[in-house]
Amino acid sequence: MPVMEWNETLVLDHGLMDDTHREFIELLNRLAEAPDATMLAALDEFIRHTEEHFAQEQRWMEQMTYPPLTCHVREHDGVLETAHEVRRRVAAGETRFGQVLARAVAEWFSNHAASMDNVLALYMKEKGFEPDRDPVSETTAAR
User: Are 25 and 108 contacting, i.e. CB atoms less than 8 angstroms apart?
Assistant: First the structure.
């Protein structure tokens, strides 16, 4: 059973951001459903995508001189720090932490997307900022 499903409340009306978020949720669900034998690989794929996803948003915020950049990035950094700690635990054989991470990130992401990412998307629209297509979507689609 998925820990999170794409739904209309997550749509930010920004194609590239929405595409990246759909991929994020897909990988989050793969992580939540991964058996012990493939947990580390699923976690590595999730972390890789998440690092690219967060870096993509950070580049956009920097390019626009986005006022709440520091707050937004701090949230991203916290998630990545936790994910890397969970990776150490999973690599040591404590695979159950992969599912724990997936559930916690699903809960966090619902709030983050509705607040921080929604404001970012609105700011981008207000400023007429149209980023070039970043490799996050294409990289994941190629896998």
Answer: no
pLDDT at position 137 = 46
Q: Round to whole Å and give the CA distance between 12 and 113.
A: 8
Dihedral sign of CA atoms 34, 35, 41, 44 in order: positive
What pLDDT, on the 0 to 100 scale, is given for residue 131? 83
The CA–CA distances, whole Å, from 6 to 23, 25, 66, 73, 139 equal 10, 7, 27, 23, 20
Which CA distances in Å does 75 have to 6, 44, 79, 98? 21, 20, 6, 20
Alpha carbon 20 to chain centroid, angstroms: 8
CB 43 within 8 A of CB 31: yes
Q: What is the pLDDT, as a whole number, of residue 54? A: 97
93 contacts 74 by C-beta, under 8 angstroms: no
Q: How far apart are CA 48 and CA 37, in angstroms?
A: 19
For the chain (length 143 residues), average pLDDT per consecutive 10? 91 90 97 98 98 96 95 97 98 98 97 96 92 54 42
